[in-house]
Design goal:
The complex is a heterodimer. By secondary structure, chain A is of the alpha+beta class. Chain A is built from six helices and five strands, in the order E-E-H-E-E-H-E-H-H-H-H. Chain A folds into two domains: 76 residues, Roll (Ubiquitin-like (UB roll)); 71 residues, [2Fe-2S]-binding domain (DNA polymerase, domain 1), CATH 1.10.150. Chain B folds into five domains: 173 residues, Aldehyde Oxidoreductase, domain 4, CATH 3.30.365; 118 residues, 2-Layer Sandwich (Aldehyde Oxidoreductase, domain 4); 199 residues, Aldehyde Oxidoreductase, domain 4 (2-Layer Sandwich); 138 residues; 245 residues, Cytochrome c-like domain (Cytochrome Bc1 Complex, Chain D, domain 2), CATH 1.10.760.10. The chains are: A alpha+beta, B alpha+beta. Chain B: Keywords: Heme, Iron, Metal-binding.
Chain lengths: 164, 1006
Amino acid sequence: MTEAISLTVNGRSYELAIPPDTPLLTVLRNDLELNGPKYGCGLGECGACSVLIDGMAARACVLPVSVAVGHEILTLEGLASEGRLDPVQSAFIEAQAAQCGYCLNGMIISVRALLNHTPRPSSAQLQSALEYNLCRCGTHVEILEAANRAVAINAAESPEAPHE
Amino acid sequence: MSDRQLSTPMAEPTELPAPLASPRRFGVAVRPPHYGWNGEHFISDRLVAVDRTSVEGLPGCVEIVNEGDFVGVVADSLSAAKDAARHLQLEWRAPSAAGQGDAAPLPATTEAASRELSAGHAEAASVHRHEYGWPSRLRWGDAPGWVVADCSGQRLMLWAETITPETLIQDLQTLTGLPAEQIELYGNTPARVSGLGRHCGDDAAVDAAVMSRHLGCPVAVWLDAAYNRDVHALGQAQRITLSADLAKSGDIADYRYHQAHASGNIAAVGLWLCGRQPTRRTEAGETPSFSPYAFSNAQLTTRRDDHGTGRHSEDLAEIQQAFARESFLDEVAHDSGQDPLALRLRHLDDARGVELIALVSQRARWGEALPSAVAKSPDRMRGRGFAYSQLPDRHQRIPEGVRSAWIADVEVNRITGDVTLTRLVVGQDAGPEVDTERLQQTLQTRVLGSARPLLGRNPAFDEWGDGSDHTRHVESTTGGALATRTDMPTKENAYGEATTSLPQTLDDVNLAPGVAVIANALFDATGVRFRQPPFTAGRVRQALQDQANPFQEEAPGRPTKRPRRRWLKAAALTAVAGTAVMAWPWKGAIAPINRPAANLYSAETIERGRLVAAAGDCAACHTAEGGRENAGGRAFETPFGTLYSTNLTPDERTGIGRWSYAAFERAMRHGISRDGKHLYPAFPYTAFAKISDADMQALYAYLMAQPAVSAERPANALNFPFNFRPLMAGWNALYHAPSSFEPDPGQSDLYNRGAYLAEGLGHCSACHTPRNIIGAERKGEHSLAGAMVDGWEAPPLNRLSSSPIPWSEASLYDYLRHGASSLHGAASGPMAPVVAGLGELPEYDVRALAHYVAVQMGAPAGDSETVRADAAARIATAQSGPIDMEEGERLFEGACAGCHMNSGAPSFTSAQTTLALNTNLHSQHPDNVIQSILGGVHADHVPGLGNMPGFADSFSDSQVVTLTAYLRARFAPDQAPWRNIESRVKTIRQHNNSPSYTPEATTRRG
């Protein structure tokens, strides 16, 4: 049964009439046409569908849209601000860390979530944070390099950020 | 009533009524060192001098109000006024000897006359004489609160806490000389009045009015337990002396009744102190009064005085008279070894009264022994009492008047002194025009409303609302607030000729026997005679302690001891035989009715019914997957075959639209459908029998007010012989005891509320108690010991809980209110809709449930540091898995770890509780783990609770087995590995794939 659902995505409010148990990913891709988050396994295993909710990583394929009501949702499309890419996006471009690129949305979102919480993570922390984002092409080395680069750019852009 | 003082913490004054927003002036009345009512006169110290300099310079613009012996201190805040009152120097002198001399002991002349009279009857077998009293103030009030008076010019506005508005207005008229229509009373005046007399809200109101009148501005007075001083000072308002000579035959040969005052109203303390209350002029004459009984020689007198006119005073006098007379007859009966009911019938020369008493005694099974409470607890005593009265009708005609016969059962806790009214059967014959249903409603609210102050106790288990305004809530809820059956065998009812009538008939409700019936039942239970109300826990406790003490002063204020008479013993044999016969009765259809109009019930009742339905979670079973709410058709697989739930909507053909309340109640309590067929105990009528009458009625009202849905249900597919419904009669005889809920007086209100919800409405045991081979819940240590239901394990709720971290009351609350506890995990499976239903209930009810379950588990209130350290250690141990289970590890890391392990990056969708603390992984049975892997975890409607997808379609059976074994080894290393995972996976898959099984939405994902 459809219900009136209000969502805040990338700073914009949306009023939707949809069944409340629809997965958030379906709503983002089909209703809001935000295709940054990808449909991978559909079981919350791979992380390709990740979005940020209140700054935390969330697997949108297993999340009923009703649970996201009242929270700030940020997709890959919303990371750039005022025409400038997010430092994590810049780092992944600079490191050319893509093979097929299907997993990259989840990688970028996971690194962003970690930096929100831990602005100066160690390489080990980065590795742990990406442990449950699956990549089938074997691009892990490049992705980790991009992640390390993201930490450096992020630090340069916000030097006053507190140390861990 | 010092109980109140103990049980209610001295609440701090809070919000004021709007009119006092400004200017804010607060008053405190300063009473003389000695003052009081001596039964005839008000006597107090006289004020000689007020030293106003003693409060000069104190903060808060202090003003002193003085009129006669009344002194009030008014300031800008209550604390400033109280402070000034402490500092104020007053000079008092003792009252003059002349003043005291006026107070002659009043019944002296009558007593002398009685003695002479009884001396003349030398042939009398025994002489009985007792005195009964009534307090001037039953208690200081119901709850602390503001009383504000605004007396300016020719108008007095009062925001008061009163239960006797009429008498308060009389006092205010005496004080101000204003006509009644210029006195406006607002505020917490309850719509119905208990009729038992005044409390100190009236004294506070007069205090406020005196101060406001002198200062010309609104003055607020804080009413709280400090007014207990007035309760004690005003003492006794009414005294009634009764004596009787008993002939050898047991008949009362000579009966004398003397009442000290026509009415038992004592004016407010402030009025006396101001000197504005005229001294009562008692006229020499005496007026005869009425008794429903006929004695060969009777003398009934009441001293005439010039106070206490008005309807309310009459009501009060009637209650006082009935209390004294009915207590006295009870005493005479017990002292002479007669059945109190039989003694009354011998002296009742009134066919209507005799018939009514016969009906009521039959309905209440008078004469049968009460079930003994001793087995439950030696500290509980049970007793039963009877009382009767006949009052004039509203045209003052006695022969046409209202007859009322009451039988009450009480249970007394010897330790605490708490008195619980466990059953009340009231019969009322109000003449030809009676609206039975409304009469019953009025009785229920008014009777139970008056029982509360009388017993000084909040019967809380049957209350709906938040615990925060507990005391108030009782006053405002309609319906039974006690563990009571209010049965109404009126003449009309018995003959099935109930007719509707004018609303005025409600005035005819005769509450007069209400106090005596409790006093008599109390005596039967304890052997202690209370000759003056109230029967608060404190007084009862004291009396029971005094029972051991042989030095008893026989005064009406003090309860006295009597040897217990055991005339009930003879009747006990019949009772046993009676029960045996009663086991097989009672089928037969109850005639269908036209569907009740939707507006028959008040919005308040329907809302209460909605909460009852939520607590009972009707919709969980009576809604098919994807079907309309409560339209039935959901399948239940039982060991005996498949059952389908019924349509609960008021559809006349397929639902319960043509069910009368009687039919509905029978189904709920006894498991018998309207058409007389037995229902199967998958429907937990064994628990629902405990639902209180008021809740049951509200539930009926709610269901009948919902939209009707026409929905046929599939036919049950039960195996032989279980498809033979009459078999259930035998099952019921063996396993169903349709007893009402009985609160445990040794436990708190919170516990009893929780027990009521859990054992009755909530029917927790339906899932959490194991059943025997023919489907009956097992008892004793097996109660709540955990069971398998519909392919899930309902874990033990008693001390057998296998939770790795012991549950605490706080964790239980989190789980029941929010669907998850950080130390235990989230609700899922059949428990998820239960939590969703609990979401409708007020916080207090969920706390009560948590408290009750915690007591069953022996769980502490909170989680100790040790427990938290243990949790941390378990989490640390589970950071890595066993080395020899690589396939399991691969499955876990690939499919589960993304949400179930902490990667260091904050995640919105990660599982809130680590698997290391999960109860299911530590259980004896792997079923819930397998169910969760296959079907996922869904708790829709529980806000904030996440979902876990099911893996039934992506894992093979052997993968599920491998993963389950791995989870057990990694997260419950202290538990033995499960042996039967393979067979359980197969069985659960089959069960879930069966066409009748509708898992919570595996189809909606993807």
